[in-house]
């Protein structure tokens, strides 16, 4: 049964990803009652909604109808996967599981599956169809399934000592997740990482991220899919910033990235990874040290893509580094290195009182300038600098961006985010030579936008991704 129950959970998560979530913002988290089924020392806990009458399933089913081919594809995948095992979801699996499926990984790494069957005979029949005999026992009104009697006895003994819903790390992890979801999970990554040590030792470079726990959720709402991650990294500090540069990104940008407060992150990576070889390689290629590059990216920045009259779209990078003079030297050095390799020179001209430098190669023309002393811009578009400085329409004022930002609870401060106007990006990708099969193109065309934001306070980071479908 374990072999069957776990694939079912994966299929339900896939169903959520292929369908959608509501435009409403995530609500405050609540600890599910089934968390009392996990021992306090559990390594992982997963809960999956299997109630087809729930709001989550209704939202998911409604969105499937809005994605061409997705309804038959997902339903077919579930039916095919279960059919290969000789079972049917409606007749065999659903009545054997009940409205919720819970999986617990004990401290001994034994998986325990818990269900509330509406038909005991269906559960007996489902267990009988398996190649392996599983031990079954009652726990607080649930049916617990284990791979051995010893595993079940150990689980019960651990449960009697305390439950996960009283553990601070667990409550904080679920506190980062929406209370309504198709699936939610929590993992004690600090303890699990010990078991992954052998894999890390096989790598040529060791990286210690210091992740204590990880929580995740997939939520079905009425106009898209909300994916949420929560994690705790001790010593992470407060890396939030106010995205002032992003507020100046012109309307019409089809993809944009905002980053800032990255110095602490860079210091953390540099403190745990041997970058000497990487630094030497970068400097030999670009003529600029790795420190020069990381310093340039250690302040606030915005990177965005806009349509242009050329085959390739305009790409613009705007930086506000701690030391603008050093970053300007770094950028100018990179441009002159590029010009040397292309057998050309860096030219200088003036645009509306601003000195603009330019390097042209066979593939692209890059213009760059220093704005307002502390801001530096580089762009591949002829009008990129002028449009950024103009008081025209901005991306943050568009309805599409506002809907996306609202879906992930975007506040005045953030730890960084990515926004993509899928409707606008698809034609640009096709112009640039990208192509998709007709079925895949129709499915992508059903998507309006995508946003991924990192937020949080102190050591706890929350990452929210929202895929919104067209009306």
Large-scale geometry: elongated
User: Class by helix and strand content?
Assistant: alpha+beta
**Sheet with most strands:** 18 strands, antiparallel
Number of helices: 17
Give structural notes.
With 471 residues, the chain is an alpha+beta fold. It has two domains: 2-230, no CATH class; 246-469, no CATH class. Helix content is 36%, strand content 25%. It has 17 helices and 18 strands. The chain has helices spanning 2-18, 55-64, 70-83, 89-97, 120-128, 149-159, 168-175, 189-195, 197-201, 263-272, 276-286, 290-296, 324-341, 384-389, 399-407, 422-431, 438-445, and strands spanning 44-49, 100-105, 111-115, 135-139, 142-146, 183-187, 213-220, 224-232, 255-259, 300-306, 314-320, 347-351, 354-360, 365-371, 375-379, 417-421, 447-457, 460-469. It has an 18-stranded antiparallel sheet, sandwiched between helices. Strand 2 (100-105) and strand 3 form a beta hairpin. Helix 4 (89-97) crosses helix 5 and helix 12 packs across helix 13 (324-341). Mean pLDDT is 83; it is low at 1-28 and 197-208.
